Recover the amino acids of this structure.
């Protein structure tokens, strides 16, 4: 079988060129000035200092706040959905879960585009309100529309890991809890929820990370004024042309992700190690 | 008490699925609308589909999306599969390093991967356009192929390949006739993932493209300022393509397995 060892060589070269080098370039750009030409390169920490300016801090705060709201809503609705699905027969469960995953395969952009025609001033919801004699409501370009779009897009990422840990659970443990005199709520909290924590942690990390790095949904549903971290990066590269500052923000975002993923892994291990 | 919670379960599931599927339904329904309105359905027509076909800009984008998805899937499937096979035979250090490097594009936010590649292409003076988009797609699809093929390779019994070679098969023959057939399910999963990832991608394509080369997502992104029902027609076609890909990916293996089970059972009965 030694013959097949060299099959790995093309990818070593490929992954170095298209995965490692781009990351190094982001690091290089983030600590230099001189724009896009590497001729008059100069090392500096200006780009990172600039992130500390109030307008940019505000962008970070807004992104985290929105990410947090989205995550909490996804956890609430997603947990209930996963729990309800887990009560069905195995066959029904796999069909129900399939229907949760299908939207994930369809382009976010196209699904978000549809929300515009549902929520806009003379959209479907407002036409309906008019028919039943209510006043139209402004929904587009608000926190509401952005959070709605995010929750719709990210809810499956919460439901699937939670459902996985709920369906792996040994049902007799709950019966045991009842036999030992636990109330419904106690049994749920002390047994079911505790055992589903690994799924919850996974779902929460996924949803939070995806929601703070998105730039499509805030742009489509929040309008041009709605700037989150993703939009800030996009602006630096597409319209403003300050690649160095853009790279510094991206690097910070990548490091944040790495930290959070590592914390999750640690928590996951701790949960997996202890019983109940 | 029990009945009540059953009713609640059904209601809750229906509400959640409505939430997931309303945007998709709205898109599909209004793509067949006879008027330009995105709120009132005035009658059935294929008007937006004819307009779609005659719109050269959109058709060019469809061509870009489809051809890139096919090429990127083909290249990343081959690259990912041989890498997974090679990796299982490599030293532990190399294997672990490659696996963690491979995880970077999966873990990293799309936007970070995208700007990394954008900076790479412009500092290497590669003209942005079709080729850069294809390279970028291969770059983010291959890791997914590797993660779906590698577990299958690991669970493979080495003695099969050794037996084939002892019996005089060349390494290439062994690869094609023994190894590849036994890791087929992983490869199919990889193909499905790579195709849909590539076909659906917006963020990475958006940053690495140039010279007017657009895929479907980029054209939708640029068109959102003016509501345009042809986008609904386009979305409906995209949704249909993805659904067909999913059905092929999920139903065909299930039918295949059932047939195989049946065959085995029939043979058992015959004996």
């Amino acid at each position: 079988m030694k013959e097949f060892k060299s099959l790995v060589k093309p990818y070593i070269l490929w992954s170095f060129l298209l995965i490692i080098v781009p990351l190094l370039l982001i690091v290089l750009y983030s600590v230099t000035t001189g724009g896009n030409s590497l001729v008059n390169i100069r090392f500096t920490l200006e780009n990172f200092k600039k992130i500390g300016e109030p307008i940019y801090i505000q962008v970070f705060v807004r992104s985290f706040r929105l990410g947090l709201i989205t995550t909490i809503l996804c956890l609430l609705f997603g947990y209930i959905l996963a729990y309800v699905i887990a009560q069905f027969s195995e066959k029904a469960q796999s069909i129900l879960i399939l229907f949760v995953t299908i939207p994930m395969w369809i382009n976010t952009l196209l699904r978000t585009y549809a929300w515009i025609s549902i929520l806009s001033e003379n959209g479907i919801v407002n036409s309906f309100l008019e028919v039943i004699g209510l006043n139209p409501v402004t929904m587009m370009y608000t926190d509401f529309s952005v959070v709605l779009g995010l929750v719709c897009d990210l809810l499956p990422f919460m439901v699937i890991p939670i459902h996985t840990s709920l369906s792996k659970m040994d049902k007799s443990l709950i019966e045991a809890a009842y036999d030992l005199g636990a109330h419904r709520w106690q049994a749920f909290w002390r047994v079911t929820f505790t055992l589903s924590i690994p799924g919850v942690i996974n779902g929460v990390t996924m949803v939070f990370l995806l929601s703070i790095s998105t730039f499509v949904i805030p742009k489509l549903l929040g309008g041009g004024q709605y700037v989150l971290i993703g939009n800030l990066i996009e602006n630096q590269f597409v319209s403003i042309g300050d690649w160095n500052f853009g790279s510094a923000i991206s690097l910070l975002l990548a490091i944040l992700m790495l930290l959070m993923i590592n914390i999750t892994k640690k928590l996951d291990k701790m949960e997996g190690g202890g019983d109940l | 008490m029990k009945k009540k919670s059953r009713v609640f379960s059904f209601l809750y599931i229906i509400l959640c699925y409505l939430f997931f599927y309303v945007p998709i339904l709205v898109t599909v329904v209004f793509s067949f609308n006879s008027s330009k309105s995105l709120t009132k359905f005035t009658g059935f027509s294929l008007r937006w589909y004819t307009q779609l076909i005659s719109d050269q800009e959109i058709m060019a984008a469809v061509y870009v999306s489809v051809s890139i998805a096919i090429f990127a899937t083909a290249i990343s499937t081959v690259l990912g599969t041989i890498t997974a096979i090679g990796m299982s035979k490599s030293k532990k250090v190399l294997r672990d390093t490659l696996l963690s490097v491979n995880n970077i594009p999966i873990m990293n936010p799309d936007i970070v991967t995208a700007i990394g590649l954008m900076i790479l292409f412009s500092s290497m003076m590669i003209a942005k356009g079709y080729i850069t988009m294809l390279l970028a797609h291969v770059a983010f699809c291959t890791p997914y192929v590797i993660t779906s093929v590698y577990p299958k390779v690991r669970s493979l019994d080495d003695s099969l390949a050794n037996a084939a070679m002892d019996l005089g098969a060349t390494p290439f023959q062994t690869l094609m006739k023994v190894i590849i057939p036994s890791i087929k399910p992983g490869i199919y999963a990889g193909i499905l993932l790579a195709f849909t990832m590539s076909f659906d991608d917006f963020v990475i394509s958006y940053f690495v493209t140039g010279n007017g080369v657009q895929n479907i997502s980029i054209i939708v992104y640029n068109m959102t300022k003016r509501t345009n029902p042809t986008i609904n027609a386009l979305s409906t076609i995209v949704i249909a393509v993805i659904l067909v890909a999913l059905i092929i990916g999920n139903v065909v293996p299930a039918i295949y397995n059932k047939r195989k089970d049946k065959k085995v059972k029939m043979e058992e009965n015959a004996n």
Observations:
- The first helix of chain B runs from residue 2 to 31.
- The CA atoms of residues 152 and 183 of chain B lie 6 Å apart.
